[in-house]
Amino acid sequence: MATPVLHIGNKNYSSWSLRPWLALKWGGIPFEEHLIALGGEGYGKSEIKAVRAVSPSGRVPALHVGDAVIHESLAICEWAAEQTPSLWPSDPLVRAEARAVACEMHAGFAAVRRDFSMNIRRRLERMPPLKDDTRADLTRLYQLWGGLRARFGGEGQFLFGQRTIADAMFAPVATRLRTYAVEAPEDAQAYCAAIFADAAFQEWERAAEAEPMTIETAEALYR
Ligand SMILES: N[C@@H](CCC(=O)N[C@@H](CS)C(=O)NCC(=O)O)C(=O)O
Known about the structure:
The chain has helices spanning 15-26, 49-52, 73-83, 92-107, 110-115, 132-152, 165-179, 186-196, 199-210, 216-220, and strands at residues 5-8, 32-35, 62-65, 68-71. By secondary structure, it is an alpha+beta fold. The model has no long low-confidence stretch (mean pLDDT 97). The site of glutathione (GSH) has 20 residues, from helix 1.
């Protein structure tokens, strides 16, 4: 079988692309990547021509495996876990809990996603004023991270001890807390530090920092 190809967006901005990219890397699964610069005509409407050409939803990420096209970040992560089962916890009930929080991230935290769009290389000096729904999202986030690490983290730094898809789903959120100078509790900061220390994350981060293209709507936030 030909090497799978992961079609992704700009590394500085595309949080949905980062998630399955990490899962594939952590799973030791060989893949090629193809980056499509987001922005310009059709952006925000799922109508970028180059994206449409590789993804039926008009959104990245999309993984091409032979003739199959897997779109949706979480579905790609699930495919990765079929190749490398340790991407989920081994205990069935713990695994179910890990899946639940991965789904919660995929479907929820809308206020955090709205107000803190991913911009890996940007740093605000001060946290912007928080809206009530954003504050509620952050409260839930800290409770979720802290609770899982206390119950399942063991000696490790990640949510379930070893790196799992749940961590891949939350990795972009860690960068958002850093970018927007969010005053997070110490244990949440420790979790973010574990993500930032990860070698695969750092590979993506270096590429994000070196990327020349910018997306104006993301840069305009809080300017
Ligand atoms: N639910 C999708 C969301 C994918 C998504 O929104 N991708 C953005 C980039 S991060 C995109 O392709 N945007 C193109 C557009 O808005 O036209 C997933 O989890 O993969």
